[in-house]
Automatic annotation (TrEMBL), chains A, B:
<keyword id="KW-0378">Hydrolase</keyword>
<dbReference type="InterPro" id="IPR050287">
    <property type="entry name" value="MTA/SAH_deaminase"/>
</dbReference>
<feature type="binding site">
    <location>
        <position position="204"/>
    </location>
    <ligand>
        <name>substrate</name>
    </ligand>
</feature>
<feature type="binding site">
    <location>
        <position position="83"/>
    </location>
    <ligand>
        <name>Zn(2+)</name>
    </ligand>
</feature>
<dbReference type="GO" id="GO:0050270">
    <property type="term" value="F:S-adenosylhomocysteine deaminase activity"/>
</dbReference>
<feature type="binding site">
    <location>
        <position position="231"/>
    </location>
    <ligand>
        <name>Zn(2+)</name>
    </ligand>
</feature>
<comment type="function">
    <text>Catalyzes the deamination of 5-methylthioadenosine and S-adenosyl-L-homocysteine into 5-methylthioinosine and S-inosyl-L-homocysteine, respectively. Is also able to deaminate adenosine.</text>
</comment>
<keyword id="KW-0862">Zinc</keyword>
<feature type="domain" description="Amidohydrolase-related">
    <location>
        <begin position="72"/>
        <end position="422"/>
    </location>
</feature>
<dbReference type="Pfam" id="PF01979">
    <property type="entry name" value="Amidohydro_1"/>
</dbReference>
<protein>
    <recommendedName>
        <fullName>5-methylthioadenosine/S-adenosylhomocysteine deaminase</fullName>
        <ecNumber>3.5.4.28</ecNumber>
        <ecNumber>3.5.4.31</ecNumber>
    </recommendedName>
</protein>
<feature type="binding site">
    <location>
        <position position="319"/>
    </location>
    <ligand>
        <name>substrate</name>
    </ligand>
</feature>
<feature type="binding site">
    <location>
        <position position="81"/>
    </location>
    <ligand>
        <name>Zn(2+)</name>
    </ligand>
</feature>
<comment type="similarity">
    <text>Belongs to the metallo-dependent hydrolases superfamily. MTA/SAH deaminase family.</text>
</comment>
<feature type="binding site">
    <location>
        <position position="319"/>
    </location>
    <ligand>
        <name>Zn(2+)</name>
    </ligand>
</feature>
<dbReference type="InterPro" id="IPR011059">
    <property type="entry name" value="Metal-dep_hydrolase_composite"/>
</dbReference>
<dbReference type="InterPro" id="IPR023512">
    <property type="entry name" value="Deaminase_MtaD/DadD"/>
</dbReference>
Length: 459, 459
C-alpha cells in the first residue's frame, strides 16, 4: 500500500513503531462515532495518528502491526482505586460489614502478613490480572510503595502509586509521624522521575487521620505539587463519626481542611448530599466509584447520576481484591450501567457509553491522568487494548458499545499496550513470568494458610 | 485400586458409566461441607454415589473418568427464567424502560422476525452458551415451543419449555384463542414424554392476560397436572395497572384466580408487599430472581432476603439476552450476593453459599425440578459441572464457595454433564456444531440488520 501511495505521487510513508488495526476503533474522544475498519499508529510511546485502515496504510509503515479482524481497538481501562497487593487476601473473608471487616480482619491480617515481599508478589499478581483484563492504568494505595513502583516499572503498566499514612500503626510504621515522613520521602524521590509512575500522598480516610494531619498532608502536597488519593464518604459509619466529631459531612470536613484545593482522587464518594456534590464538581476533585466493593460491604449506592449531572469527573475502581474479589474493571463498567438504573428507577440512567466513559476518558481525568491517556488521539500516550467481539457467546453483534458494556468479560481482551509497548499479545502476558509468579503466590499463600491454621488451633 | 480392594476381601467393584473427580466436591446437600479429593459416580444417567476418591476408587469402575485436579465438582446451574431465542436480539436495543422496550421494540421485532427457523437458531445459540457456562437446566418461555423442545432434545440440556399464550397477536397467533389452544396441545403432547423436557403453560403476565383467560389456564393446568410459568410483579407499571383495574397487587390478583394452587414458576417477583411474600411462601410458588434484567430495565430490587426469611423457594434467572445481555448465570449469582447487601445496608445479607443455593438446590425446587436435580446425591439425575479454580486470576484459593460466587466466570466451567451425558469436555461443546451454528447466526442476523437498515432508510 505504501508503494501504491508513492506511485500516486502522495507524500512518502512515515515510519512508525506499531500499527494496531481494528474492525472497529472506539476513540472515546467526545462525540466521535465508532470508526469501522481503522487503525491507530504509535511512535515513541505516543499515538501519532488514528484513521481508516486505507489512509493509515497509505501514510505509515509500522515496524510492528497487530491485526484487527473481529476486534475493537479502544483506550485501555483506568482503575481509579485499588489496593493491588491485597490480591493475596482474595476471598479470605467475605460477607462482613466495613468496620468488622477492617478492624477484625484486614488491619490485623495486614499487621501480621504484609512485608515488602508480600507486596511484591501481590502487586505482580494484580498487575498480571490487570494486563490480562485490559486495565492499563491504576491508582494504587498500599504499603511499601517503593516495592509497588518497582513492580509497575518492570511489568509496564501505568500507575499513580500513593503512599499510605495513617494515625495508627501500619505495616512498617508505628503511627502517623513515620508513615507520613515516609510518604513525603517517597513523593520527593519519585515525583517527575518515571514516565509511567506518579507518586501520591494517601491519607487513609477522614476517620483514621486527624484534622491536623490532613492539614499537614495538604501543605506537603501543595509544596510538592503532588496528587492526593484517599477514601472519602464511603460508609454511613464514617458519616456518623464525622458528624459526631466535626458536625459536618466527610466531604465538607476535608474540603474545609484544604484537601479540595489539591489534586485529590477521592475513592468511594457514596455518602454525599447535594452540597457535597456541588463542592466536588466545583473543585475538579476526581470521584472514584467502586460499585462492587460498595455493594459487597453494604456501604450504599453512590449518587453517580447526580454527580455526572453536576459535572463531577467520575471514574471507576475495583477497590482491593479482598472486597471485590477480583480486579476486573469490566464488571465495574457493567455494574455502573446497571446499578444506577435500578437505584433511580430510570432505565435510561448511565447508558452504556457513559459507563464506558467513566472507565476511560473521564476515569483518566478523575485519576489525574487525563492529559496522558483515556482517549485515542494524536498526542496521547499509547495506552490501548484490543477486545475480541466474535466469540460465539457474543453473537450476534449489532452495537459495539453495548457489547463492551453488557457482554464483554476480561477474558475477551486480546491485546494490551501501554506507553506504546506490548504487554499482552493474543492473551499472552509478555512482561511477567506467569510460572514464577504462580510459584511465589503458592508459597506466600501457603504461609498465610499455615499461620491461620495455627491460630485456629491455638484458639 | 479395584484389584487391591478385591485382594483385601472387600466387595467386588461395581461398574459405572462415568466417574467425575474433583479436588473439591460441593454437593449442595444442606449442611454438607465441601468434600476434598472426592468423586461422583454416574450410572444410567443418575448419581449412584458421592464420596472420597479412595472409597469411590475401591468400590466403582467407571467406563469413563474425568480428572478433577484443581477443579470443583458441583451441581449444574438452574436458569429459572429465560427466553432463549432472544439471543438473536442480543444488544439490539438497550437503556430503555420496560414498557418502551416491550412495546416499541421487542413486540414489533418479534412480530417481524420470529419464525420457527429464528427460534431454532436462537435457541441453539442459547443452549451453546448455557452448556459452556455450566447451566444444565433452564425454564424457557418463547414462541414455537416444539422447535425449542427439539433443540433441547438434540443438545442434551434439561428444560421446562413453556408455551406462551397472551391476549394479543404474537408470532404464529392472532390472539388468545389460538395461542392458548396451541399451548394446551403442546402440553398434552409433551407431558411425560421426554426424560429431560417438561412442557408448561406460559400466560405472559397479569397485564397481558385477562382474568378469564388466567382462570382457563388454571383449569387446564390442573387438568393436565402441568407447570405454569409466568412473569409476575415485575415493574411498578404492572402494579399500577393491576391496582387500577383490580384494586389489588399482582400477586393477590393471580392468587385469587387460582394460579397459586398450581405448580407456578413466577419470574421477577420484584413488586411485593409482606402479604404477597407470605402468600408466596405458603403456596410453594417458585420465585425467580433476575437481578441483571431488573436492574437494566429499572424494574426495582426484589425483596429476596425477606422472601428467603419467609421460606419462599427463590431461584435465579438471566431473563432473555435482549435484557441482560447474556445467559451467564454466574453473574446473576454474584449480583444476588451483592445487590441485597447494598439494598438492605447489611453486608451479611445473602452470603455466598446462599447465593449459590439459589442457582442450584433451591433454584431447582423453584423451577419445579427439585426432585431431579440441584444436589449431588444418590438418586438425583446426574446434572453436574466441573469448575476450574487455579487460573492465575483466581489465585490464591482460600474458600471454594467464595471463589465460585465472587471470582468465577462462565469461562471457568470446564465440564458439563446432563442426565449422565457429557455435553462439554475441556471447554469443547460436544453436542452442538459450533461452526454450523455460527454460520446460521450470521445469516439470520444479517437478515435482521438488512431489514432494520431498510426501515431506517424508509423512515
Amino acid at each position: 500500500m505504501a508503494v501504491l501511495s508513492l506511485c500516486a505521487g502522495a507524500a512518502p510513508a512515515q515510519s512508525a513503531d506499531l500499527v494496531v488495526y481494528g474492525d472497529y476503533v472506539l476513540t472515546m474522544v467526545p462525540d466521535e462515532p465508532v470508526l469501522e475498519n481503522g487503525a491507530v499508529v504509535v511512535r515513541d510511546g505516543a499515538i501519532i495518528a488514528v484513521g481508516s485502515r486505507q489512509t493509515i496504510d497509505e501514510q505509515y509503515i509500522g515496524a510492528e502491526a497487530i491485526a484487527g479482524t473481529h476486534r475493537v481497538v479502544m483506550p485501555g481501562l483506568v482503575n481509579g482505586h485499588t489496593h493491588t497487593a491485597m490480591t493475596l487476601f482474595r476471598g479470605m473473608v467475605d460477607d462482613l460489614d466495613l468496620m468488622t471487616w477492617l478492624n477484625k480482619y484486614v488491619f490485623p491480617m495486614e499487621g501480621r502478613f504484609v512485608t515488602p515481599e508480600f507486596v511484591r508478589i501481590g502487586t505482580e499478581l494484580a498487575c498480571w490480572e490487570m494486563i490480562r483484563g485490559g486495565t492499563t492504568s491504576f491508582v494504587d494505595m498500599y504499603f511499601y510503595p517503593d516495592d509497588i513502583a518497582r513492580v509497575v516499572d518492570r511489568c509496564g503498566l501505568r500507575a499513580v502509586v500513593a503512599s499510605p499514612h495513617i494515625d495508627y500503626p501500619s505495616p512498617g510504621f508505628s503511627g502517623w509521624d513515620d508513615s507520613f515522613a515516609a510518604a513525603v520521602d517517597f513523593v520527593k524521590r519519585w515525583q517527575g522521575k518515571h514516565p509511567r509512575i506518579t507518586p501520591a500522598f494517601a491519607p487513609h480516610a477522614p476517620y483514621t487521620v486527624s484534622p491536623d494531619h490532613l492539614r499537614a498532608t495538604v501543605e506537603k502536597a501543595a509544596e510538592l505539587d503532588a496528587i492526593v488519593s484517599m477514601h472519602l464518604a464511603e460508609a454511613p459509619s464514617e458519616s456518623a463519626y464525622i458528624a459526631e466529631n466535626f458536625a459536618t459531612t466527610p466531604v465538607r470536613h476535608v474540603q474545609g481542611l484544604g484537601l479540595y484545593n489539591q489534586r485529590l482522587i477521592a475513592a468511594h464518594m457514596v455518602q454525599l448530599d447535594p452540597n457535597d456534590i456541588a463542592l466536588t464538581a466545583a473543585s475538579g476533585v476526581g470521584a472514584i466509584h467502586n460499585p462492587t466493593s460498595n455493594m459487597k460491604l453494604g456501604a450504599g449506592i453512590s449518587p453517580v447520576p447526580a454527580m455526572l449531572n453536576a459535572g463531577v469527573n467520575v471514574g471507576l475502581g475495583t477497590d482491593g481484591a479482598a472486597s471485590n474479589n477480583d480486579l476486573d474493571l469490566w464488571e465495574e463498567v457493567r455494574l455502573a450501567a446497571l446499578l444506577h438504573k435500578v437505584q433511580t428507577g430510570d432505565p435510561t440512567a448511565v447508558p452504556a457509553l457513559q459507563a464506558l466513559t467513566m472507565a476511560t476518558r473521564m476515569g483518566a481525568v478523575a485519576a489525574r491522568l487525563g492529559d496522558k491517556v483515556g482517549q485515542l488521539k494524536p498526542g496521547m500516550r499509547a495506552d490501548l487494548i484490543q477486545v475480541q467481539l466474535n466469540k460465539t457467546r457474543q453473537l450476534p453483534l449489532y452495537d459495539v458499545v453495548s457489547h463492551l458494556v453488557y457482554v464483554t468479560d476480561s477474558s475477551d481482551v486480546v491485546t494490551t499496550v501501554v506507553d506504546g509497548k506490548l504487554l499482552m499479545r493474543d492473551r499472552e502476558v509478555l512482561t511477567i513470568d506467569e510460572a514464577a509468579l504462580r510459584a511465589s503466590v503458592a508459597r506466600k499463600s501457603d504461609e498465610i494458610r499455615s499461620a491461620l491454621a495455627a491460630t485456629d488451633d491455638a484458639s
